[in-house]
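Minutes, project huddle
Topic: does the predicted pose make sense with GPW bound?
PN asked that the exact inputs be recorded in the minutes so nobody has to dig through chat later. Recorded below.
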Amino acid sequence: AGWLADETPRLDSSVKGSAFEPTSPRATEPVVGPERTVDGFAKAFLDELNFEAGVALKRSTTTDQYLALARTIRGYLMADWLRTAERRRQNPTKMVGYLSAEYLLGRQMGNSLLATDLGDIAEQAMTSLGLDFNLLRAQEIEPGLGNGGLGRLAACFIDSLASMDVPSIGYGIRYEYGIFRQTFEEGRQVEVPDAWLSLGAPWEFPHPDRAVQVNFGGTTEQYIDGDGRTRPRWLPAWNVQGIPYHYMVPGYQNGVVNTLRLWSARATQEFDLEIFNSGDYAEAVRAQTFAENISKVLYPEDSTPQGRELRLQQQYFFVACSLKDFIDRTLEEDFDLTRLDERIIFQLNDTHPVIAIPEMMRLLMDEHDMEWAAAWEVTSKCFAYTCHTLLPEALEVWPVELMTRLLPRHMEIIYRINEEFLDTVREAFPGDELRVRRMSVIQEHPERAVRMANLATVAGVKVNGVAALHSELLRDKLLPDFAALWPNKFTNVTNGVTPRRFIRLANQQLSTLITDTIGPGWETDLERLRELEPYADDAAFTESFRQVKQANKDRLRSILSQRDGIELPEHAMLDVMVKRLHEYKRQTLKLLHIVSMYDDITSGRVRREDVVPRTFVFGAKAAPGYFMAKEIIFLINSVAKTIAQDPRVTDLMAVAFPANYNVTLANKLIPAADLSEQISLAGKEASGTGNMKFALNGALTIGTDDGANVEIRELVGDENFFLFGMLEPEVAALADRGYTPSSFYESNPALKRAIDLLASGHFTGGDRSLAAPVVDDLLYKDRFMALADFQSYLDAQARVDAAYRDVDGWTRSAVLNVARSGFFSSDRSMRDYLDRIWMPKS
Ligand code: GPW
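Predicted holo structure (tokens), as shared on screen:
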């Protein structure tokens, strides 16, 4: 048996002996972590604190203690990590390479404790040392290396891949600054840099020894190679180094620890040499900064790429590092690259990493001597593409001018891919030049640019959308020409979320209730939640279920009080809308409902005793350059403040907008929610994943027939879901007829009252101009048809009120939401990717 071979016993409490025994020769000795006892943990912790950090316990700060605790926990994962890597090396099989510009990981400590099942031991060890475990846990700044749904999906997927022991590796960028921290000043969003590394980075392992060089710019030329063949080559103008940082991705209590490899940019020797030679010290340091800018900051635009040069540099940077890393380090030295597809499938998380396709061609041809046809043969088997949107403004295009300047060789390759592809199109559809133009990888207007989605579709083995409806629209409306050419290329994989983080960690009490009721094991077999169905009518169970919800609400109230100084009423329906601020998601529709309810109460139109008290919670970041989104945030905050100061309504409604919604806050908010708001215009939200988290935590959804809402409703049942709004075909028909929002305003008195009240300045200190940007847009543009869906939304909210008054009926529905949402585990998503894309049987 080799080092750390499979038969090495797993570490568990039965492993005897000190962790700190000198190791015998590494060829035979397993890596042994610290002992799984309270004393063993405390000793390991003190060793970290004293000998690694060089701090005495009684002199140590909370930060010192947090860092030592983190390093102690990761010490317990180390043996499994090394063993997993070695097992994979011994038995090379096809791997999944997940390429994503974003990973919105959330805090690492809780997840690592759950994966190792060390929570109790760690807590007792800290207590035995006189330390406050929860205070230490609260120190962690979550790695916010993503914007929203797309980045969080990547984090859920790598969690599932590890929990299912799928050979896989995640590749991405180690941004020095993640998504900005949101603060409010006078109700307006102000962004603060997210210096998440400033406390130290106990979860990462830098490997400067494994740096990779990445080239940029310059020109290409033809040259005669040793065999007398004319070949192209790239003469780059500058380069940077990529330093890999490894993160552990532990599976759920299964002894597997996968790797997430994030790249950080650093100036190369050449930069340093220039420093030396030029004698211009300041200029040389500037050059260094230039190189390091590449991984400096996450672009905060969600679904609206700005087409910035630095962004393309980031994309190429991490993809070039990753492919080189895989080919040079992961494959055996003599591996035959014409069989590369037997070792890897790269999943492209949207178009951000699509430059990997020409990069793979370049590597195979220019660096590994392959001919075009052979290189294409294998490249076109190594990538699959996931699309996460339908919004035209979200589709990435890169100007040819920029692409040529930054990546001249790649531009040549893209042209050639396109030529051969368009030949195929012309063959299949002779004489159809309009079709050729629509399908071309190069768009001509408004400027010549590379359509990254087309490139991904041409090269990908499969193209998938992220929910059933989305995949259908993707195939039939966004890429119909491609579907006509390659009908079998298109498939669906409905998104999912990890039950480890979003049920076990976020909702411990519900988890305990579930385990007490159906036994353990549901965390990795989430369809087992079905076994809860019979308990929807069980008095004892539903009573406990209600108590759990109330406890989660109480916890949230105390968190919001401490975190934001927000005081919420104890007993009110908790109505939550948390997601990025985007017009298509329609936070304004929610706001119109709130204003309408306020107006009903203050005008006496409804009797106070008929009102179901509600607390509305928003969480949303706006892209810093997205004007309308920021105006909407301001207006929500204005309404919240006015309502809080109006004694006519404070006992019946409250609006809370805690700043800086992130994964950490999501974990506190979602378990407390009664009502989940999923109200995008039908056809615009590709999937949504928050919607799944709420259902799994026993919130009922009010939602449109959009994204994964469709599947949630099918599964939980119509009677346990509040559907409203136009269906996608109705939306399309209305858009074709021509949509005039003002006609809805004119003909609907309730809508008119709500809009007039917003416009009046009532919520903005009497200043009408402050509400005007949002109100005028709604009245005269309303691209996402909020006014058209308003009445239907109001009617659905009335049904929500009625249902909520029936405590037993509501609880029953909530239980059924949990019981019937097991499908939305990201483990199931991974199974679908394996079956339909990565390892298809046929
Ligand atoms: F525009 N999504 C996101 F498609 O969070 F690229 N950021 C993005 O930039 C894009 C999509 C992009 C989201 C979708 O809006 C959401 O519906 C989906 O659930 C999520 O990606 C994961 O698939």
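Observations noted during the meeting:
- The pocket of GPW is lined by residues 147-150, 153, 302-303, 350, 388-389, 394, 466, 495, 685-689, 707 (CB under 6 Å).
- The domain at 97-107+144-495+831-838 is CATH 3.40.50.2000 (Rossmann fold).
No decisions taken; revisit at the next huddle.
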